[in-house]
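In response to the reviewer comment on reproducibility (Comment 2.3), we provide here a single inverse folding case reported in full, input and output, so that an independent group could reproduce the run without further information from us. The structure tokens appear first.
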């Protein structure tokens, strides 16, 4: 939802979540999580977990179990372990109840219950009075501690808005280089819970740093220098006063630049076809054939994909359709680093001699794939092309001929195939083939308008010579012979964003009823 740019924006607007087209819902709506599942994300782990809690409290165990199990289907998720614990508790309670019903656990007789009723009442009364006295002693004699601060107190025509925030406690935790993500998640989860016990009124934030000196026993130490934050590859946050989940976010420095240029490439394609920028960024995420992108990448520093029309440094993105070019039209809503993010369009470079395809922006490689090409009698054309229509599961002259997805280049396409034996060989009718699994990975990362450079194979030429030949075919930066290899973690982070996005911003990219006639 676009927020007012006035001096005093409505406090209610901050509680509204855009679910579908003109449908917004308040976060405090009793049906909020049900509406999230219905209109935004049917697989939301948080929404299913909260609904599980709701039905659990009402005693509706079967419904609670259903939503807890749905929450566990998304992994990794901050609600995975909580849902697992809740399921284990419900199943243990059910087993105990069954045992009682079958007579294995003998319950008290009516006479015994009558005898225990009065003593139990006295016990509860005495315990309640004792706890009240302890609480009064603590209030009057305990030292005062600053645990919360009023951060907003804005007068409006009716009422006022007050926000309380816990004091943030930042910590630093070192991990060995190459530590598996699962081990990192488990360690951060355990450390956050222990630190919350030691600092019960604090918002715990742990910054994970990769270090060759990390020992077997990992200790979280207070963060005294903010420079360490920029070196963190993972951040964990835990504030039990607000949310029982430990939120873990892996940070990829290149994610912001790559995500920005995916969107900018799609923006330029839209402008080229319509003569003007789209009124809203959502217009790039429409159903086929207007699916310029498959998803909106998250901004790497904050992990947010929220788009604003003005800059305030709160994370996510800024979209200003009145700007002069794509670089100034779309940029991260964070404080700028040492260098601004330059616009380098998404580019696919096909090395015919190596039977490989590399996805990149400028000189930054993102992913590399093994491909199949045209035969000697029906060779794949060389030169510079532009990605046009993007379609999932395209229909051709025979079922599945174009595989999982396709990127149209005119008479040919980059598409998937079930014939994995053709990968790494020159046997197609001219199209560029990838395995269905790798095509499903490449497709969402390639926007409409991406440049495709097909470098001819030089007989006896080296890989570097063939790659350098891209200069003769495209105005975009050439593929450098000494460029670094693609980073698997970067590709994994981008794909995680593509998989997690659903609901109204997830376009329908199939083209039912359309028959495609690429060379194959």
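Designed residues, in position order:
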């Amino acid at each position: 939802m676009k927020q007012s740019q006035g001096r005093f924006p409505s406090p209610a607007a901050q509680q509204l979540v855009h679910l579908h087209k003109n449908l917004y819902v308040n976060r405090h709506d009793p049906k909020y999580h049900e509406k999230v599942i219905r209109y935004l994300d049917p697989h939301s782990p948080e929404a299913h977990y909260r609904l599980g809690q709701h039905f659990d409290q009402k005693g509706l165990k079967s419904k609670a179990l259903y939503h807890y199990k749905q929450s566990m289907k998304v992994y990794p998720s901050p609600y995975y372990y909580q849902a697992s614990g809740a399921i284990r508790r419900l199943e243990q309670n059910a087993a105990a109840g069954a045992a009682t019903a079958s007579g294995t656990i003998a319950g008290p007789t009516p006479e015994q219950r009558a005898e225990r009723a009065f003593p139990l009442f006295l016990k509860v009364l005495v315990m309640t009075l004792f706890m009240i006295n302890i609480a009064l002693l603590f209030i009057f004699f305990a030292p005062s501690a600053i645990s919360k601060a009023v951060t907003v107190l804005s007068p409006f025509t009716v009422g006022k808005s007050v926000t309380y925030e816990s004091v943030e406690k930042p910590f630093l935790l070192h991990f060995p280089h190459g530590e598996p993500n699962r081990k990192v998640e488990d360690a951060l989860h355990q450390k956050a819970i222990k630190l919350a016990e030691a600092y019960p009124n604090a918002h715990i934030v742990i910054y994970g740093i990769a270090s060759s000196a990390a020992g077997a026993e990992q200790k979280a130490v207070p963060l005294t220098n903010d420079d360490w934050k920029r070196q963190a590859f993972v951040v964990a946050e835990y504030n039990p006063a607000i949310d029982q989940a430990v939120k873990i976010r892996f940070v990829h420095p290149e994610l912001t630049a790559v995500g920005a240029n995916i969107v900018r490439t799609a923006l330029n394609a839209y402008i080229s076809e319509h003569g003007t920028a789209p009124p809203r960024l959502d217009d790039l995420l429409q159903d086929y054939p207007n699916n310029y992108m498959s998803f909106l990448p998250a901004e790497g520093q904050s992990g947010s994909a929220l788009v604003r029309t003005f800059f305030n440094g709160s994370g996510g993105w800024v979209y200003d359709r009145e700007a002069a070019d794509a670089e100034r039209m779309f940029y991260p809503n964070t404080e700028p680093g040492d260098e601004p993010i330059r616009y380098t369009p998404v580019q696919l470079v096909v090395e015919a001699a190596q039977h490989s395809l590399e996805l990149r922006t400028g000189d930054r490689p993102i992913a590399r794939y093994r491909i199949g090409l045209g035969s000697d009698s029906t060779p794949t054309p060389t030169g510079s092309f532009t990605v046009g229509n993007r379609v999932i599961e395209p229909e051709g002259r025979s079922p599945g001929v174009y595989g999982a997805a396709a990127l149209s280049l005119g008479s040919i396409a980059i598409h998937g195939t079930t014939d994995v034996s053709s990968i790494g060989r020159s046997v197609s009718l001219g199209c560029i083939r990838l395995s269905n699994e790798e095509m499903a990975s490449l497709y969402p990362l390639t926007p409409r308008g991406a440049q495709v450079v097909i470098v001819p194979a030089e007989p006896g030429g080296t890989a570097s010579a063939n790659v350098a030949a891209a200069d003769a075919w495209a105005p975009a930066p050439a593929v450098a012979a000494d460029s670094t290899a693609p980073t698997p973690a970067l590709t994994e982070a981008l794909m995680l964003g593509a998989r997690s996005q659903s609901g109204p911003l997830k376009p329908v990219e199939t083209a039912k009823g359309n028959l495609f006639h690429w060379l194959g």
